Amino acid sequence: xxxxxGETPRERWYIAEKIYDFMGARAxxxxxxxxxxxxxxxxxxxxxxxxxxxxxxxxxxx
Length: 62
Hints:
Structural class: mainly alpha
Radius of gyration: 15 Å
Number of domains: 1
């Protein structure tokens, strides 16, 4: 089944990003050098900024 989305993780990443965009999901895709399965300080900071932005946008009045 994974071959439907790409043979490598990077190929699957690109397809997943397109699917999220098509569905209108509020997401940001980022690759970090030497990123593995552990969350770095940089990732933590970026996630904090993302969620702060999304929460602020969701409470704005039209």
